[in-house]
Amino acid sequence: MTDASTRSPVTAEPLSDAERKLTMSIMARWSKLLGDLTELVNIPTGRAPHPIAVEGLNRTRTLLRARLEKLGANCDFIPGDPRPAWLDRVGQVSSLPDRVGQVSNLPSTPPPTLVARRLATKSDRRPILLSGHLDTVHDPSPDAPFRTLTVSADKTKATGPGVVDMKGGLVIALHALEALADAGIDVPFGFILNSDEETGSFSSDRALRAEASRTDRAGARLYSCALALEPANGTNGLVTSRGGSGQCMIEAKGRAAHVGRDFASGRSATDLLARMIIAGHKLTNPITGDIVNFSTLFCDQPPNQVADHAAAWGNLRYHTQESGEKLAAAIQRLCAERTTPADGRTITAAVSLIRPAKPGTPETLALAYQVQAIAAVLGQPVTFSTTSGVCDGNNLQAGLDGWHRSPTGAGSHGSPTRDSQPPAPLPPFPVLDTLGVRGGGLHTPQEWIDLASLVERCQLLAILLSRLSNAGAVGC
Question: What is the CATH number of domain 244-354?
Answer without folding.
Answer: 3.30.70.360
